[in-house]
Amino acid sequence: MNIYCITLNGPAPWGFRLQGGKDFSMPLTVSRLTPGGKATQAGVGVGDWVVSIGETNAEDMTHVEAQNKIRAAEESLTLTLSKDDQAFYDHQIYQHEKHGLRVDGIPMFIPNDRSKKRLIEDTQDWQPRTGTTQSRSFRMLAQLTGTDYMQDPDDETMKRAREKFLTEIKSPRYARLRDWHHERSARALNIKS
Hints:
Elements: E1 2-9, E2 16-21, E3 26-33, H1 38-41, E4 49-53, E5 56-57, H2 63-72, E6 76-83, H3 86-91, E7 100-103, E8 106-109, H4 113-125, H5 136-145, H6 155-169, H7 172-188
Antiparallel strand pairs: 1-6, 2-3, 4-5, 4-6, 7-8
């Protein structure tokens, strides 16, 4: 595990985005870097874990708490980060109940292989899409809301629905309903007594 500390001179933008947090049961990690941005120039890499923001331990921070802490930094932003070292994973040294570890007094996350794989998959899923494909997050949302079976109506269905509507508005029943509605609205607005 390669732990390092950087100080970015303000003001924002700092040139990176985060993902994860206590509320996502994932460590806070750098998910994107702005090319040529302050974070890139300081040597931050995508996938680096955030150990602390300023002097505050990031281990128990939610995503929003981390964002607010970063936004509050005006003149400078100090981050303690750690880069991935595969040998450290192989030892599987972490606390199972908190999924965290303290190395040399510095708190950090050591995720298991499953959470590391999820982090990589989530980052790859954020790439821009071509055509009509949907991101995994939208597919998951559709499954949660029960709308994943729904499809866009085809041209034939739309044509039949439009023909039915046009037929109905020409019917005497529609004319009576329209006249009743106009009269009722006029009374409600005190236009007609």
